[in-house]
Design goal:
Elements lengths: L1 E4 L2 E5 L5 E4 L5 E7 L2 E6 L5 H17 L2 H6 L2 H12 L5 H14 L12 H14 L2 H20 L26 H13 L5 H13 L3 H6 L5 E2 L4 E4 L12 E4 L2 H12 L18 H11 L7 H13 L4 H6 L4 E2 L2 E2 H13 L1
Antiparallel strand pairs: 1-2, 2-3, 3-4, 4-5, 6-7, 7-8, 9-10
């Protein structure tokens, strides 16, 4: 039997389904499955190695679901993948995957089985020019995961997207306020109208707790135990970034802020009441920075300030989550925590 593969004559060998290119000497595996011909380069000129690779290819071909592979479009299969894995994702992560699938759709309008390296290269070449590094990497990761799922489901033999390299993301320089600048920011927010007061509360909560924004806005009064002097970070409905709740010592700066905030309320808050009612303070902070003549800080610099001060004291994330019995530099953990929180509150 002779056939053409990229204009090369293929010669049959004495091993079933194994063919050799007369021009390059490279071996190929050719199979017929349910009326479809499957042809794949084994990427070697060594016959014994080709025989071993052929056996692995044979097992993959046996798992192929050619009927489904011929029918299902990429975008439909991507949505099926998202439904299968989306339950374990946070809402923000799911929304990013949905946006990535929408961006991939114009480049992959055919069936999953028809996707090949040239089509992936076309997408990569186009999006490299038009998308940011972060957006490109999210789309790349989504495409790889969808096609990996297609392999597991027996729709394709290999994932052509895995050869696409991840783009390097340049980290923007974060401007962290000094203690004096942070105090000026809070004073400016509190001296503005009432709409800005909760923005100041959110800034203080972030700075004194070290929580991420979504964790801080989800924190309720029931998460705080003033008697045991600790608080629990749950992340609310969508959980924390690593899906694990953590209990942390109630630093004196945070305790003082919470007591002050509680006293300012018209009635004692319920355990289910959120400590701050707003989701973000971006506009308020930008306006306050402009009014006070400060650099334009972002909401994330509040918890970044926590990390910077914590690092100076040698308090790692693992230590924060470990509890109260760690001894460091000759001091028991509570003593180091008190020192840290005092510095943060100042």
């Amino acid at each position: 039997m002779k056939s053409n593969h990229k204009s090369q004559a293929l010669e049959k060998t004495n091993i079933p389904c194994l063919y050799r290119s007369a021009d390059s000497g490279i071996f190929y595996g050719i199979f017929s499955r349910k009326g479809d011909q499957i042809k794949k380069s084994l990427k070697t000129t060594d016959k014994e190695l080709a025989r071993r690779r052929l056996e692995g290819l044979r097992q993959k071909v046996a798992r192929l679901n050619t009927k489904v592979g011929r029918a299902i479009l990429f975008v439909d299969f991507a949505k099926r993948w998202l439904e299968a894995v989306g339950g374990a994702m946070k809402q923000s992560s799911r929304e990013r995957r949905e946006a990535a699938i929408k961006a991939l759709k114009p480049y992959f309008t055919n069936t999953v089985r028809a996707i090949d390296k040239s089509q992936v290269d076309t997408w990569a070449g186009s999006r490299n020019k038009t998308a940011s590094a972060r957006t490109f990497n999210i789309e790349r990761e989504t495409l790889i995961q969808v096609l990996d799922y297609a392999m597991r489901e027996g729709l394709i033999l290999e994932n052509p997207a895995r050869v696409v390299e991840r783009r390097k993301q340049h980290q923007a320089r974060v401007v962290i306020p000094s203690k004096a600048q942070f105090k000026t920011l809070l004073d400016t927010l509190r001296q503005s109208d009432a709409r800005y007061h909760e923005a100041a509360d959110l800034c203080e909560l972030l700075a004194y707790s070290g929580c991420r924004l979504a964790e801080a806005t989800a924190m309720t009064w029931g998460d705080v135990n003033l008697e045991l002097k600790n608080f629990t970070v749950t992340g609310g409905e969508y959980g924390t970034k690593n899906h694990e709740a953590r209990t942390i010592p109630l630093f004196p700066g945070l305790e003082e802020f919470l007591l002050r905030l509680q006293a300012s309320l018209s009635k004692l808050p319920e355990p289910t009441d959120r400590i701050v009612q707003i989701e973000n303070a971006k506009k308020a902070i930008t306006t306050a920075c402009s009014a006070a003549g400060l650099p334009t800080f972002t909401i994330t610099v509040c918890d970044t300030s926590f990390v910077r001060t914590r690092s100076k004291l040698g308090l790692t994330s693992r230590l924060l989550r470990a509890g109260l019995v760690t001894r460091m530099a000759g001091c028991w953990w509570p003593k180091r925590t008190d020192t840290y929180a005092t510095n943060t509150a100042q």
